[in-house]
Write a structure and sequence with these properties.
The structure holds 2 protein chains of 2 kinds. By secondary structure, chain A is α/β, with parallel strands linked by helices. In chain A, the strands form 3 sheets. In chain A, strands 1, 2, 5, 6, 7, 8, 9, 10, 11, 13, 15 and 16 form a 12-stranded mixed beta sheet that branches. Chain A has a two-stranded antiparallel ribbon with strand order 3-4. A two-stranded antiparallel ribbon of chain A has the order 12-14. Chain B: Pfam families: PP-binding.
């Protein structure tokens, strides 16, 4: 629904949860974001690989958080999503024992699925033959299974699916979730994304594409969105989950929204498989569509939580799009300097960060910007958090495949 | 041929159930069935693979069911181990 057609539909964000390399939980992650403290470092999983560092949530142990009886059946990506969901529901004050499960949807994305499980079991097939392959492989690792497991854990019997648009996957999930609420198919949707793909195969593949930073001598400064010396993204893992509700449902139970998800836009470059459209035409279309959906004018946007991957191309094109559509007014940040690039969870991480920015009226800095790329003609927040009066913010996600998704949030 | 004692196999099996599936060791008795441990059919297949690797003898997934007890499977394993014991 656009502004012209009537009042925009606003989904209330009443809870969120995070597992990131920057912290267990949204509160700890937020503090690390505000401090601009990078999390990339060498990880044992990638020992001996050309790129041997990543942003790993190594404080997270599924057995400890969920108990071995639950955790053994779940890929790490699902374990993290389960933890983030519990945190989000607790923050929202929702008790699954009390809700009408038929009205609760789950839309949880992942770009690649349970890669650690796929790779482990493929290794067993090669080494020991087909008899050694786990019967749990498919229910652990298929991309839809996180949403299925979360639903089963909480009795969420409404629409349930994964979205897959590569690095935009979880922003797409938020858009789909909002559609379910707007269509009145659900009262509550658990939405977000997860990724646990720090594996040799994934790292080798992204490195071979030239997508990863090769700053192996100084991993902590490798993810440097908008910096002139950026040379690629840093692989990360984590999960973020948001609780979205129909506003009247939240109001009726006395829940206070942290912000509203007020608009969503999506588009396709319909061009090269991995290289963004050099003019950013597709990204611009998604951004304009999200603004129209939210009933926002370009000059209403106070803050952009950018896709800002730290790749030379993305950050150049994205900053051009921001400048062209929104001008130089919005405060722009990319949390990937801290978190790295979490692929299918990146959009959800950044959505939570955007909600927290609106809630606390402060924009976290982009880490590792030593010298802003002179081509980047937007107001990038660097060095320290910036307190700012904000009513509206957008978060961009652009996936390989030319898949673009933008969400617009407004303050509560 | 030296018979492998069922008791030592049972202890190793219970340790394996605990490590793989998070069962409390003290909750598993010789007469406990797999169904009462809430291990479903896929979990039992997983367990048969784990047994095979842990004990180093082939175990077919059809050789036991959810209604077998721990000791019934321990006896099965002890028999396999005894039969393949090269010293015996």
């Amino acid at each position: 629904m656009t502004a012209a057609a009537g009042r925009p539909f606003r989904a209330a964000v009443t809870g969120f949860g995070m597992v990131t390399a920057a912290g267990l939980g949204a509160a700890e992650t937020w503090q690390t974001l505000l401090a601009g403290r990078p999390t990339a470092r060498r990880v044992p999983e990638l020992a001996g690989m050309p790129v041997d560092f990543a942003c790993k949530a190594d404080q997270f142990h599924g057995d400890a958080v969920l108990g071995r009886r639950v955790a053994w059946r779940l890929d790490r990506s699902t374990q993290m999503a389960m933890a983030a969901t519990t945190e989000a529901l607790n923050l929202a004050g929702l008790d699954p024992d009390q809700w009408d499960g038929a009205r609760v949807g789950v839309v949880l994305a992942t770009a690649l699925g349970g890669m650690t499980t796929w790779e482990r079991e493929y290794g067993r097939l090669r080494e020991h033959g087909p008899g050694a392959v786990s019967p749990l492989l498919i229910p652990m690792a298929a991309v839809n299974m996180t949403a299925g497991h979360v639903a089963a854990a909480h009795g969420a019997k409404g629409p349930n699916f994964a979205t897959a648009t590569a690095c935009a996957s979880s922003t797409t999930a938020l858009g789909a979730a909002r559609d379910l609420l707007q269509a009145n198919l659900c009262d509550v949707v658990i939405a977000g994304g997860t990724e646990a793909s720090i594996t040799p195969l994934v790292a080798a593949a992204f490195a071979k594409m030239g997508a990863l930073s090769t700053r192996t001598d100084d991993p902590a400064t490798a993810s440097r969105p908008f910096d002139v010396a950026r040379d690629g993204f840093v692989l990360a893992e984590g999960a973020s989950v948001l609780v979205l509700e129909r506003p009247e449902h939240a109001r009726a139970r006395g829940a206070r929204p942290y912000a509203f998800l007020s608009g969503y836009g999506a588009s396709a470059d319909a061009g090269h498989a991995t290289r963004p459209d050099p003019d950013g035409t597709g990204a611009e279309a998604a951004l304009r569509s999200a603004l129209a959906d939210a009933g926002l004018a370009p000059e209403d946007v106070d803050h952009v939580n950018a896709h800002g991957t730290s790749t030379p191309l993305n950050d150049a094109v994205e900053s051009q799009v921001i400048h062209r559509v929104l001008g130089d007014r919005p405060a722009v940040t990319s949390i990937k300097g801290v978190t790295g690039h979490c692929l299918g969870a990146a959009g959800a991480h950044e959505a939570v960060a955007t909600v927290l920015s609106l809630h606390h009226q402060v924009v976290p800095p982009t880490a590792n910007v030593e010298e802003l790329d002179p081509q980047v003609q937007v107001d990038v927040v660097t060095d320290k958090p910036r307190p700012l009066l904000m009513a509206a913010a957008v978060s961009h996600s652009f996936g390989f495949g030319g898949q673009n998704a933008v969400v617009a949030f407004t303050s509560a | 041929m030296t018979a492998i004692p069922v008791q030592s196999v049972r202890e190793q099996m219970i340790a394996l159930l605990s490590a793989r599936f998070g069962l409390e060791e003290e909750s598993v008795a010789p007469e406990t069935t797999f169904s009462s441990m809430e291990l479903d059919s896929l979990a039992l297949v997983e367990f048969s693979i784990a047994l095979q690797e842990d004990f180093g003898v082939p175990v077919g997934e059809e050789e036991f069911t959810a209604e077998n007890t721990v000791d019934e499977v321990a006896e099965l394993m002890a028999g396999k181990l005894t039969a393949q014991d090269p010293v015996g």
